Structures are given as structure tokens and as C-alpha cells.
């Protein structure tokens, strides 16, 4: 972490339990020293020293308290008040007695001095106490060890506080990002459910529309067939019943997310679909297959089957077509499906649910669908599907 970011963390943080612990230690320290001043001094000087000691305790903490931490101002107040009081006491008493007065301030200063240039200033204060010891007859090594221990403890506690608060911020950030991930996960789940519902509705639309077009066309022709040949009419009734029954099974498979052509190739499935549609609608359908027939994935196969279903249904239901041509071209890079009819055509194409579903299916495979239409000249649908996009 950089010095500026570390300082920002320190300035913005609340008090840690170590802050309260050091505040408690400092309170005991000032109380003990205040009592020593009270019993060892007399006259007006006693109250001046007590006021001085109280200021050295209170004023630094005006800049170092919960909700407001300004280490620069705290350090200045600590050095000026506590340092000047120490110098005055040293001039009146033996240094060996007054030197212990610095231990707790050294501890708290080291705790606060964690970023540049404060840490260098804290070290300079520490060095200053060592230099001051050279001018006394005291045990320099003992004072060196005592000062270093207190400064080291304070500095280590300060680092612990920074690391602890940084980890808290990191954990809070991770929790916030987890909440965002949970939110987006729910959104993705909702979109997935919506997409699946649309897919099922498209399958049902294509399947049911195809079946009912065949059934209705057969039922419309049934009265005329019954008058002409009763046996043939009875046979046709059975075929219509079988068609409806097979359609019901197809719908059930769609509801259970099953492909109706799992065990057939694409061309076999298309041939079966065409034969069934021709049988019940008396529509002439021509199928042409070009190129080397290759196996395609279930997604592509199902999409093409549904698109051809919709194309046949649309040509018969809306275009009243009597002839439909289907061309499937297997190329190295793409699969092209052409559906062309001789129906009524139109001046303006109204893209309903079926044609929109066709576009959505092909677009999901990174393909394209184009519609060509002309009044009284039928309609042509071209689907281009990149073979490499199958996943």
C-alpha cells in the first residue's frame, strides 16, 4: 500500500481496540505522574505543573479521538507539550527519574507514526533521546534498550491496527461485491428462465401451428371425401386421429425440453416432416439437398426443423400455396436453407410470432434470416447458419 493511501486509511478509520487500550494506559500514566508531581512539589508551582500535565494529556487527544484523527496535529501537540514538560522536569530533577516520563508518549507516538514523513519524524525523536543520553552519566545501553522496546512495541501495534483496518475494508469490499454478484446472478437466472420460456413457447407455437394446419386442412376436405368414398374418408379420419395423437406426443416432448428427432439425421427428419405435411394438406413439396451431407448438432437440427415447420405452415395458412420448394445446401463454412412457395405473397410483410421466433432461433446460432416477398408471386425465406458456431 502506498504512503498516501495508507495515510488515508489511518485518517478515516475509527478507533480500534488498541486505541482504547493505549488511551487507558496513557490515563494511568498521567494519573501516576500527576500524583507524583502533587506529592513532590509545593506552592503555586504544583498547580502549574498539574495544569501543564493535564494539557499534555488532553490537548493531543483533541486531534486523536474517535471520529477525528489528525496525526500531524496530534504529533505537534505531543512534542510541544509533553516534550517541554519533560525538559522542565529534567532541569528540576534527576534525569534518571524523569526519563521514564517519556516511555508512554514514545509508545503512543510510535503507534501514530506509520506513514511518511511521520515515521521518519518519530525515528528522529527516538534518536534525539539517545543523543541526549550521551550527556549524562546514566547507563546509555539500558536507556537505549528501554526506549527501543517502547518505540518498537508502539510501532508494531500501529502496524497491526493498519493491517486490521485494511483487512476490514477489504472484507467489506468483498462482501459488497458478493452482494453485487448475487444480484447479477439473480438477474441472469431470471433472464435464463425468460429465455427458456420463450424457447418453449416458440417450440409449442411451431409444433402446434404445424399440426393444427394439417388437421384443419384435412378436416376441411373430409366432407367432400366422405361423399365420394366412405372407406377412404374413414381411412382419412384415422390418419387425422394419428396425426393429432403424434402431435400431442410432440408437444409433450417439447414441454419436457426434448428434441423430437434425437435419433434421426437432419435430412431424415426433414423428409419425415415434408411427407407428413404433404399427406394431410395435399401440398406439393420438393426437397433438394446439395453438397456433402454432414452431421449437425442438435441445436442446429432442431432450429432448422422448427424453421421449416414455420415456413410450411406460413406458406399454406397465409399464402394458400400449392407448391413449396425446400433446398438444403451443405457448405464447408455454412448451412443454407431455402424455403420458397408459389403462394399469394404480399406487399408488406407482417412479422408475427412465428417468423420472429424463426429469426430468434437462427440469430442464437449466429446466423441470419432473410425474407423475400412479392404480391401474387409467393415468398422466399433464406436461412444462413455458420457451421463453426455450433457449441
Automatic annotation (TrEMBL):
One of its GO terms (cellular component) is membrane. Keywords: ATP-binding, Kinase, Membrane, Nucleotide-binding, Phosphoprotein, Transferase, Transmembrane, Transmembrane helix, Two-component regulatory system. CDD domains: HATPase_UhpB-NarQ-NarX-like. It is an enzyme of class 2 (transferase). Residues 196-261 form the Signal transduction histidine kinase subgroup 3 dimerisation and phosphoacceptor domain. Gene3D superfamilies: 1.20.5.1930, Histidine kinase-like ATPase, C-terminal domain. GO terms for molecular function: ATP binding; phosphorelay sensor kinase activity; protein dimerization activity. It comes from the Bacteria. InterPro entries: HATPase_C_sf, HATPase_dom, Sensor_HK_TwoCompSys, Sig_transdc_His_kin_sub3_dim/P. Residues 303-388 form the Histidine kinase/HSP90-like ATPase domain. Its EC number is 2.7.13.3. The keyword Transmembrane applies. The chain crosses the membrane at residues 20-41, 71-89, 95-113, 141-158. It catalyses: ATP + protein L-histidine = ADP + protein N-phospho-L-histidine. PANTHER family: NITRATE/NITRITE SENSOR PROTEIN NARX-RELATED, NITRATE_NITRITE SENSOR PROTEIN NARQ. This is histidine kinase. It comes from Cytobacillus dafuensis.
